[in-house]
Amino acid sequence: MFEGILFVKRPVLPYIVLFIGVLIASTSAILITAAINLGVAPLSVAAGRITLAALIITPIVLLRSRDELRRISQRDFMLAALSGICLAAHFATWISSLAYTSVASSTALVTTNPVFVALVTWLVFRQRLAWGTWLGVLVTVLGSGLIALSDRSGGGSNPLLGDLLALLGAMTVSGYFLLGRHLRSRISLLPYIWIVYSTAALALLLLATLLGHSLIGLPPLGYLLILGLALGPQLLGHTAFNWVIKYLSPTLVTVAILGEPIGSALMAIFLFDQPLMPLQIAGGLLLLLGIGVTTLAERPAKATKKGT
Predict the structure, then answer these.
(1) Which residues, if any, are the signal sequence (predicted)?
(2) Cα distance between residue 300 and residue 211, in whole Å
(3) Are 170 and 111 within 8 A, CB to CB?
(4) How far are the Cα atoms of 79, 102, 136, 194, 232 from residue 61, in angstroms, in the given order?
């Protein structure tokens, strides 16, 4: 009887966890925007989020992965630290974008990172891209252009600056993903994210201090929102994606994550009264289509290369 239950439940559970992970990740932009609306500086939000996440996992890493940390080569440690710098730059630019543009535009543009990963793979690593990848890049560029047009008359909040910062966030997180792809074959998950998160936390705390943004004296609700970001999108959301990748195809997981800007945009309509403009909707749909095409075109190519 129990074997039958397990047989039924095991294939279903990863899909449920993936759905919950996307839902949790969708709250990231909402929590950030709520904190910014309270007067918390974007850099304080970024520094607080990643610092709390690093502090939470530190005792776990020291208990379970201390020996592996000691065995990591100096070169790999430095590359992981560089990945943390890329992550810090991602949070600094993307979270700042939410102070200038809408949740829908920001989250749609920051999810273009698969396109930048594909371009870096072509330009730096000299790997040929499939025609489907180029088609996805073209569609994504068109979608970005439509979003920029829809935000052109955004008033005093400077939405075009916000769009640019969101795109910079996509570029910098691409470096984080590329370095992670290279290092994760040699470093386990917990030691890797501890080095990355700790480095990102130090970089953001230093930057926030230099620019006069403090984590001291924030509104109590601001601290709760930052804690929610650390526990929810940063730890639970990312952990869910890292868990399901063992049971579901990387293509399915990557495409499913594209639901994040959709969930964020829908929540922003009701919570922050940020209606979607027709060009914004069209641009967002083109972005999702372009990213999906790029992802689907890239994965089979890798699988074929591995099989030769």
Answers:
(1) none
(2) 45
(3) yes
(4) 19, 37, 39, 7, 19
Rounded Cα distance between 208 and 177, Å, is 24
Contact call for residues 147 and 108 (beta carbons, < 8 A): yes
Give the residue with greater pLDDT, 120 vs 77. 77
pLDDT at 114: 77
Pair 244, 17: CB distance under 8 Å: yes
Closest CA to 137 of 281, 262, 287: 287
Query: CA 228 to CA 30: how far, in whole Å?
Result: 11
Contacts of 43 (CB under 8 A, 6+ apart): 92, 95, 96, 204, 207, 208, 211, 213
Give dist(CA 189, CA 193) in Å, integer: 6
Tokens 């309509």 belong to residue: 269
pTM over 0.85: no
Tally the residues of the chain: 308
pLDDT one-digit tens code per residue, 41-84:
999 999 999 999 999 999 999 999 999 999 999 999 999 999 99
